[in-house]
Amino acid sequence: MCNFKSVEKINDGAIIYLNPDIVTKFEDITENDRKLLIDQYEYFSTMDITLKYDNWRRDVILKSILPEDIEVPTAYSLVGHIVQLNLRDVHLPYKSIIGQIFLDKTANARTVVNKIDTINTSFRYFAMEILAGERNTITSAKEHGCTYQFDFAQVYWNPRLSTEHTRIITFMTQGDILYDVFAGVGPFAIPAARKKVQVFANDLNPESYKWLQKNALVNKVKDNFKAFNMDGRNFLREVVKDNILTRRAQNLPGSEHIIMNLPASAIEFLDILPDWFTQEEFKNVCLKPPIFHVYCFVKADKGDDVCMLGKLLVEEKLGYTLSAESIVSIHNIRDVSPNKQMIRVSFLLKTLTGEEPATKKFKIS
User: Fold this and answer.
1) Beta carbons within 10 angstroms of residue 355's beta carbon
2) DSSP class of residue 6?
3) Which UniProt keywords apply (predicted)?
4) Rounded distance between C-alpha atoms, residue 222 and residue 239, angstroms
5) Which of 58, 236, 238, 309 has CA 20 to 30 A from 181's CA?
6) For 145, left (φ over 0), alpha (ψ -120 to 50), or beta?
7) What do you get for the CA distance between the two ends of the chain, in Å?
8) Count of CB atoms within 10 A of residue 49's CB?
9) pTM of the model
10) What sign does the dihedral 187-188-190-191 (CA atoms) show?
11) What three-state secondary structure class fits 63?
């Protein structure tokens, strides 16, 4: 129960309120507790009290107003001051009241939105409607010591990836290079730059690019951070390729990390690899192979090895089998929906050709 004090001090004593669904008479209290109370209380009785809207939890209120056959929505994400819901079709006739209850019953919430479409695969944001509160989708979120500002209605942000953002940075040390192909507003790029990694961060979405630059300033990263607003393939073919070749020519230290966090389609961008470098260039590149961190979605049945499915999916797009020595890490990031997982495959670019991969076709959406 919310905003209700179960102990009320009066004069030299106190009134203790007990849950009437559990205790209706003194004997309902456990024997040990009764012994403790025997010299402490004057009398036991019942009384009527008036409970108001503020006293009830969100789930209790929703259960009381929704039809009995409709499951109460409980899942939500809090992005700054914005509560993000993903209501089912059965909830939509009641969306306004559901939104208002979430607004009233969620600490620090000022706006409640509902996702109404899948993510835009080009610019990586989903259509949403405001259900309650302020019509303001510009917000600020904090994650592991970094501050990110953005318009939630125009860019991609997922607080459920917070752990992965931190995990991937552990692969990097000061002096390394990060090429973030689909950088969004910077959840990989900004903390990497603060770790003194040289960062080249790119996003096709002009809004993401705008906030990416803003977040670099907010988090005081400048000298080792460059932002780009390009198609991912062009970024790889031009910026990443040129910088890697320059580094090899100058024999510069540090490892190179290429993050491709666009799980719905990142693997499609691997088609640039066969002609990314000339054979002579590739020999120099592989003296210190870059590390790819590729994210993908995998459809899997119960009991399937989802990490192996992710590896096979990447291999299918590469056109060859990844050797054991080239695998850096394969990680199951999170459940996206029933039978759908988000996987990261991290591997060293050691070859452009090799043993043909399995020919089985894998579902990615």
Assistant:
1) 10
2) S
3) Cytoplasm, Methyltransferase, Mitochondrion, Nucleus, S-adenosyl-L-methionine, Transferase, tRNA processing
4) 18
5) 309
6) left
7) 42
8) 8
9) 0.86
10) positive
11) helix
To which residue do tokens 């994650």 refer? 143
User: In the chain, what are the domain boundaries?
Assistant: 1-55, 57-136, 156-348
Amino acid identity at 56: W
Fold of 57-136: GMP Synthetase; Chain A, domain 3 (3.30.300)
Name the H helices within the chain. Answer: 31-37, 58-65, 95-105, 162-169, 189-194, 206-218, 232-234, 241-249, 279-285, 306-318
Report which residue type is found at 161: L
CB 178 within 8 A of CB 198: yes
Report pLDDT digits (tens) over 3-59: 888 888 888 788 888 888 888 888 888 888 888 877 777 778 888 888 899 999 999
Alpha-carbon span 193 to 223, nearest angstrom: 9
Closest CA to 261 of 346, 138, 141, 146: 346
Read off the pLDDT of residues 111-135 as tens digits, 9 standing for 90 and up.
999 998 766 667 777 889 999 999 9
